[in-house]
From TrEMBL:
Example GO molecular function: NADH dehydrogenase (ubiquinone) activity
PANTHER family to which the protein is assigned, alphabetical: NADH-UBIQUINONE OXIDOREDUCTASE CHAIN 2
Family: Belongs to the complex I subunit 2 family.
InterPro entries hit by this protein: Complex_I_Subunit_2 (IPR050175), NADH_UbQ_OxRdtase_chain2 (IPR003917), ND/Mrp_TM (IPR001750)
Gene behind the chain: nad2
Record-given protein name: NADH-ubiquinone oxidoreductase chain 2
EC number: 7.1.1.2
Parts of the chain that traverse the membrane: 58-83, 89-110, 144-162, 192-212, 232-251, 263-283, 303-327
Domain of life assignment: Eukaryota
Localization terms from the record: Mitochondrion inner membrane
Amino acid sequence: MNMKKSSWLFMLTLAISTMITLSSNNWISMWIGLELNMMSFIPLIVDKINKSSSEAAMIYFLVQSISSMLLIMMVMLLLYKYLVINNNIFMMINISLLIKLGAAPFHMWLPEIMSKMEWSKCIILMTWQKIAPLFMMSNLNTSSIINLSIIWSVGIGSLGGINQSSLRKMMGYSSINHLGWMLAINKSMNLWIIYLMIYSMMVSLMCMMFMNYKMYFINQVSSMNMSDTEKISLFIMMLSMGGLPPFIGFLPKWMTIQSMMNNYEIIMILFMIMCSLITLMYYLRVMMNMYLSYNSSIKWSNIYYKIKPLTFFTMMINLSLPLILVLEMF
């Protein structure tokens, strides 16, 4: 990955800013961590100067600034009232954090800036940028706005990706869908961290493969000169992202279902599972396009094809769930 020297500095401050938020014991310090995070990510977006990245940076700055202003205003009200518990204030804090995350119904900016950024920046936005706001939300009281956001995120994340030709927008809607699942188990710190770790690993591997082949649209997938091994690897990765057993992507959804069943949230979990099937459909649409359409590669040339480390690592990660289950039996 070719990066300027200054980019490594911003990557470092991006990591430090999240650590500041995670290690803080008051709202002001958390807010400072979020602001530093925003100011570190914007230069990374405009690493290569062009119209798209500049537009993405502007949209990101405006959205994050509005949510930050809302957050600090509510925090000041809390301090002014000498920490008197006010549910409306906590609801507004939750809304400001949902805007930062790009959760529905405050989601419109996320797929838009995803389509204007490089894959490497998309990986950071879909993974690392979620940690601090989710951590802050797990320390707040659950309000009705969170439950509404879970339903909206899971629904919009699944339906929004159906009609997309851009892979980056599709991954953006997929991220919104997975965010809904993470919010559903947000009260349990251990569960959402495990979910985010597994999701981050899957998303990073998939986006790295897209980045290697410079794939940005669905119609490019069928014309890629990929080996059969890489095709199978990408196919397995897509199924894993959709949460299909026995792949590793099923494990976090399994944990979520189990946790919600223990809390008797039967109707919500049924809705989430149905929406998960829709996401699986648009993942499969990408893969069917690759398998059933014309392929420019010569089939016989791939018999003695050397498996790339990324492809091998991807397959091992996605097929690790049966191995984990076997190990747990002993």
